[in-house]
């Protein structure tokens, strides 16, 4: 397993994210835009789950973007997301990648382009984290079991954080173990230099980019019916959030 395999296993959950994005959209979206797409795992899940669905996945890393091979309903573009113009129904930026845009001017400019790409009724969604631990350094371990009996230890490390500038250095490490014996270890598998945008900063930037409505959602649905359709309501009060949280910020109109 390489670092991208481990990332998809430990960090991403496209199977759960697709119905959540559909619920946030509120209609029947068919075209997904996945900016800063990495391996385009979300796009792959989208075309699998959505009948006739299509996806546009954009990333600067050609090796990562093409690792799953071609699919007739996925357009993969090795490009800067700030130059994209392909129309979509839902545009998603995950893994806190909105933080690659370090200045407010860059952020608003990008969001204006995003808005121009959305079809009627379309929605933009990105994630961010916040709360009392947002600018604390340290690390958290998570464990994932593999079918062959091995176990993966995934470590999220916030190596540095400056609350005066909003800049953070976040790092992912992976360790593969079998019976307590380390078989492989990937330290600094991914190193991110991000601007950590707060929820109000993102909402203000979205408004300045021309969006008529912004909402905040938890990353878990409020309900799910017997057919697997999920339902979600916006967060109305900050008291609904945990002391440290990850949320989805959405905009439309």
Topology:
Elements: H1 3-10, H2 14-25, E1 31-35, H3 41-49, E2 54-59, H4 62-65, E3 74-78, E4 88-93, H5 104-117, E5 118-131, E6 138-145, E7 151-162, E8 167-178, E9 181-195, H6 199-208, E10 213-218, E11 223-224, E12 230-231, E13 244-252
Parallel strand pairs: 1-2, 1-4, 2-3, 4-5
Antiparallel strand pairs: 5-13, 6-7, 7-8, 8-9, 10-13, 11-12
Helix pairs in contact: 2-3
Q: And the CATH topology of the largest domain?
A: Rossmann fold
Any idea how many domains? Answer: 2
- Estimated helix fraction: 10-25%
Q: By helix and strand content, what is the structural category?
A: alpha/beta
CATH secondary-structure class of the largest domain: Alpha Beta
Total strand segments? 13
Number of helices: 6
What distance lies between the first and last C-alpha atoms, to the nearest angstrom?
42 Å
Which residues sit in consecutive blocks of at least 5 with pLDDT less than 50?
none
What amount of the residues lies in strands?
35-45%
Structure explained in plain terms:
This protein is an alpha/beta fold and 253 residues long. The chain has 2 domains: 184 residues, Rossmann fold; 58 residues. The protein contains 6 helices and 13 strands. A hairpin with a 4-residue loop joins strand 7 and strand 8. Helix 2 packs across helix 3.
